[in-house]
Amino acid sequence: MKVTILGTGSPEGHPIILHPDDYVEGDESRLRPGLLIEDNDIVLFDINPDIRLQLLKLRIKSLNAIFVTHQHFDHLWGIGDLSQLTWLGKINFTIYTNNDTKNYINKYFPWINLNFEIFEYDKTYVFRNFTVTPKKAMYSIKFDTAVFETKIGSKNILYAPDFKGFMDEKYIKDYDFAVIDGAYYFGKYIEDDDHLGGKDLEKLINKTSAKINYLIGVSPYWYRQLSSELLTKLPTNILLPKDFEQIKI
Q1: Where are the alpha helices (DSSP H) in the chain?
Q2: Residue 183 contacts residue 221 (beta carbons within 8 Å)
Q3: Hey, what CATH class is 2-247 in?
Q4: pLDDT tens column, 183-194
Q5: The predicted structure's pLDDT at residue 86
Q6: What is the distance between the alpha carbons of residues 173 and 183, in angstroms, rounded to a whole number?
Q7: CA neighbours within 13 Å on the CB side: how many for 27?
Q8: Over the range 177-209, which residues count as b (16 or more CB within 10 Å of their CB) and which as e?
Q9: Furthest C-alpha separation in the chain
Q10: Contacts for 201 with CB less than 8 Å, ≥ 6 apart
Q11: pLDDT number for residue 24
Q12: DSSP annotation of 168
């Protein structure tokens, strides 16, 4: 069993395209977010624009399912690379989305011919050695967004890359690991209403009671500090992972 955090960056990724030198010195490159579970079944969470690079690097040769959180480009727009598999006749996986994301794909990617299924919130999808349950999150007022709870044996993992709260807090429980939106943990560098930051984010992280929290969406570039410097400001149960970091189950 392998659980890999594919990417840890904010939407633009770092370094930013056409600005290869304009970021904090050191190994601070960041790909866009995603999570991969490799076992008897292989399940991918989100289809970011770097997905081709990520799956090739890990030498992934098949998928059983993909779960998409929402329609923003840094979580979906790698779908064009996957759609090219139709030329090879190798579409044997299902892409699970909410209704809003599927409507978006129908409108803006009508040429994509993949296997889709609308997932049901709070329904548990069973694979051979783990389960996946979509939960509805508060995020954009324009469309639905999901977070995903995965149970592997006795371990619970929360994948919540973009959110500002949970629709139903009664499902929040003790997680062993949370891969969680930390874009503004160290303060907001732009104004938007879709992400929690600072004390509000700390409070929500404490509610999940996760033993280990992996903050993703954090770009040291915006704070002009190295990850190692930012890490010193975090509690011991909150980490700043690197791309392709494995969660030790």
Answers
A1: 51-57, 73-76, 79-83, 99-108, 198-208, 220-223, 227-231
A2: no
A3: alpha beta
A4: 999 988 888 888
A5: 83
A6: 23
A7: 5
A8: bbbbbbbbbbeeeeeeebbbbeeebeebbeebe
A9: 49
A10: 181, 182, 184, 185
A11: 60
A12: -
Task: Look at residue 221 and give its three-state secondary structure.
Answer: helix
In this prediction, residue 220 carries a pLDDT of 77
**99-144: pLDDT as tens digits:** 999 999 999 999 999 999 999 999 999 999 999 999 999 999 999 9
CA–CA distance, 179 with 123 (Å, rounded to integer): 20
Token pair listed for 122: 């709070």
User: CA–CA separation, 65 vs 80, rounded Å?
Assistant: 16
146 near 72, Cβ under 8 Å?
A: no
Rounded Cα distance between 41 and 65, Å, is 8
Mean pLDDT of the chain: 91
Each residue's pLDDT tens digit, 10-32: 999 988 888 887 766 666 789 99
- Every domain of the chain and the residues it spans: 2-247
Q: What is the pTM of this model?
A: 0.95
Whose structure tokens read 């998928």? 63
Residue 88 carries which DSSP code? G
Is the pLDDT score of 171 beyond 80? no
